[in-house]
Amino acid sequence: TFALNPGKAESNLDYLVHLDKLSSLGVLDPHSIDIAADSYHRYKEDVQMAARLKLKVFRFSFSWPRILPTSNASEPNPLGVQHYHNLINEILFYNMTPLATLYHFDHPQSLETFNGWWGFEMVDKFAEYATFVINEYGSKYSLIEPLIVELCIRVTKGGSGGKGGTGGMPPSPSIGLEIAAWKGGKLPDNTHVKMWTTVNEPNVLCTFFRLLYKTAGLKKIEDMDHLVCQRHALLAHARAYRALEQSNHTGQMGLSLALIPAVPASTSAEDVYAANILNEMFAGILYHPVVYGDYSEVWAFK
User: Fold this and answer.
1) What sign does the CA torsion over 47, 53, 57, 61 have?
2) Mean pLDDT of 99-122
3) pLDDT score at 19
4) Euclidean distance between CA atoms 236 and 133, whole angstroms
5) Which of 98, 186, 226, 266 is 20 to 30 A away from residue 151, measured at CA?
């Protein structure tokens, strides 16, 4: 919850779950989910566990209201901005690739004044936010320089050359920075956050959240056409992609969807057609414009 995160603004999710109106969906105590995995405070443990599993990629998401609590790029939250620098440094230190998600369902509650993702203004605000994040985190110093890691190990183990750290893990990245400064060295600027996703699962965002808002009595279902929401999410994705393309940073950026593929019950033309239509409605409507630049002919209603 925003109350436990210094500088973070109230998000749409904070507001929703504390209304005490979602009991029909299983949210009986609005404060019972204030603390979940608590990665904000325990990110080092999370990264170290991933390293012990020998994972190569560490995916995480930025919290929009933590970084830009007023939604204005001119008013960032320094504590929130620094948190993600610390997290990315930790990921890089353990030689994993950070996969950064710009948006995973939370935005400043203040953006609901124009109906959130059902308002076109959201596209412009998301582009502003995405540009800030890309410029802030798109280029990071590498903490995986072999010499620096070796120096870290030798210093923390008294020159023994052992693996060092609790549970066989390397020491903190800050030690590497101190050693580099002491040796007069310069960490090479050769590691970027090169892998990005934009809006996480807009097909879920634009359907499940309709149910949440309706159940909470905040919006009428007729005011939340999921196709309008999905169109705005696509435009926001495109604006973020262009922001990366036009920046000085290199990398890859994509759109992540929840895929629940339909398989025909038989080889009959009717079953094949029905499965294709469902796949188009759930995923094709979003992937087709990204790949081909326009909607599928399935959506060319007559």
Assistant:
1) negative
2) 96
3) 83
4) 14
5) 98
Tokens at residue 70, please? Answer: 């007023």
Give pairs for 256-261: CB < 8 Å, separation 24+. Answer: 256/101, 256/197, 256/200, 256/201, 257/201, 257/202, 257/203, 257/283, 257/286, 257/287, 258/201, 258/203, 258/204, 259/283
DSSP state letter for 188 = -
Structural element, H or E, at residue 58: strand 57-61
pLDDT digits (tens, 9 = 90+) for 42-61: 999 999 999 999 999 999 99
Rounded Cα gap, residues 106 and 120, in angstroms: 17
Segment 161-180 mean pLDDT? 44
Q: Which two tokens stand for residue 260?
A: 């629940």
- For residue 300, the model assigns a pLDDT of 64
**Looking up tokens 């188009």, which residue turns up?**
280
Residue type present at position 124: D
How far apart CA 215 and CA 73 sit, in angstroms, is 32
Query: What is the pLDDT averaged over residues 68-77?
Result: 97
The Cα–Cα gap between 81 and 77 comes to 6
- The C-alpha atoms of residue 194 and residue 44 are separated, in whole angstroms, by 21
Q: What is the pLDDT of residues 1-19, one digit of tens each?
A: 555 688 999 999 989 888 8
Average pLDDT value for residue range 162-176: 45
Are residues 69 and 108 in contact, defined by beta-carbon separation less than 8 angstroms? Answer: yes
> % helix / strand / coil in the chain, to the nearest 5?
55, 10, 40
**Structure confidence by residue, pLDDT tens digits, 112-155:** 999 999 999 999 999 999 999 999 999 654 444 444 444 444 44
Please tell me the distance from the alpha carbon of residue 296 to that of residue 302, in angstroms, as a whole number. 14
Q: Which of 65, 105, 64, 289 is nearest to 208 (CA)?
A: 105
How far apart CA 246 and CA 240 sit, in angstroms, is: 10
| Residue 95 CB coordination number (10 Å) | 14
Structure tokens at 172: 């903190």
